[in-house]
């Protein structure tokens, strides 16, 4: 970061600064983990970056734009949280690199918005003081003021501003317009430190931690003298922790939470799913009636509606899953679960820190693998990366739901719904195999000693409805966009490959048998016959490499085209229920517990490990496991008479 000009303690507004720079000024949001940087970033820029109640959510820098009241555009950079300017983990290192302008093609920020958690000044002010020492132009955003007030923490903002020597504004990251004071202050510009503490641009030996801590205590005594005496809610949280992190009750609570989640995915989704299904059927019927028979009609009915539309049906289930994940993320529960499982995870060779990345992998392995950056030990990190794809990502949910819907009867077992139970079992199978693989990896390949888990426990927080609604909306948008783009494109492509070339004269079977896709499917059948897959499944697995949900769409298209009559494309699930054996269905489920084929995951592993070795290794071991598991499942189910 450039040194502030000596003569000025005020840069005359960001507008003037922009003119002087000849480009838009760049501001960085810097602060401790979990203080609300990303929440503010989203408010400032209208972005929808992930916000959650635990440390280490943001692991990569993100840039967005905000416009001040005078029309000046300002680039805002959201950074991973850091406790100090002396980084301990790879994600913290990103922050320092950006701040010091050591990233290629990226100018150092022109100023800092120091985001401070008002409920935890003691911890947060240290970083502010370290930054002051560097002499960076800065505004302090006193965030979480709502929570601070609620707890009765009184902060003398004017005094804090005087003590720090820079403007301090109050913000609330989770309230619409909670950033207005910050915007107003930014229009006035970022003042440099009056005494320019950084005499030589911040290269002087840094003040030691103890001196900084003393200074924090001194400032606190001036600006928030009562801060120590507000322990009422803290006591309550402490008592709650006694239960939540209890070795027996805590585990029971965790198991029940996960269990209810999977029951809900089936039990609550029926009605909206039927609605979408009926809508799709009506659309297919309408198209069928309104258009003359021909390739275009087939494309729309068999390709688009049976394919991409068939995937859309699973939107309600995905949203229910995410509603649970979002509430868990925002409540502050996750790091506690991580502590609870630390010993257990330590036993299989994973660090407790791996819990959150692995849990994120239930949504998608890509952010999960990126979240491993908060693990400082490289071997622990690598082990976590290698097992992340075994966590059942949400793209597998449509495949599971389709097969379970077709083959598992909808009845209750005691209190439980059998379908929810099966889904739970599939997720558990994924988790258990992850434990097994991690244990093996650590045993034979990368031994590292146990490292005690150090995580900051965030306060419990009632998830805000606004964040939940925004989060679900974002998820729905992403899913519908996937259906509309990649899934749509792949099913259309598959439709083409399944329609041409047409059947030769005098052919008897359905036309698809003679098409490119049909030929490919038949060729692959040799490989997959031992695990009980037919040629239709073999075809569907190929485009499924790009996005797993495509398997459902592809099966929809393939079966719509293999239908002997050309009636309205039927719903897929009764068709496969009729045509597949139970053993085939279970084998496919077992295959998808391991489901090695996801190109974006492999690309992320390549990027994060900086080598081809690990993605290759991952593909090989996952393929072997998937094939082995499908084989065993198929044979055993056949043997049992399935
Ligand atoms: N009550 C209250 N909660 C807030 C406020 N700002 C953020 N939060 C919540 O605080 C938690 C952390 O917010 P994030 O924006 O993810 O924090 P961050 O600083 O980006 O965290 P990292 O990326 O992990 O460093 C989330 O649960 C937010 O909903 C606020 O002003 N008031
Ligand atoms: Mg963040």
What does the model show?
It holds the Pfam family Gate. This is Ferrous iron transport protein B. Keywords: Membrane, Transmembrane, Transmembrane helix. With 642 residues, the chain is mainly α. Helices cover 58% and strands 6% of the residues. It is built from 27 helices and 8 strands. The strands form 2 sheets. A 6-stranded mixed beta sheet has the order 2-3-1-4-5-6, sandwiched between helices. Strands 7-8 form a two-stranded antiparallel ribbon. Strand 7 (412-413) and strand 8 form a beta hairpin. Helix 22 packs antiparallel against helix 23. The chain is globular. The structure holds guanosine-5'-triphosphate and magnesium ion. The site of magnesium ion (MG) has 4 residues, from helix 2.
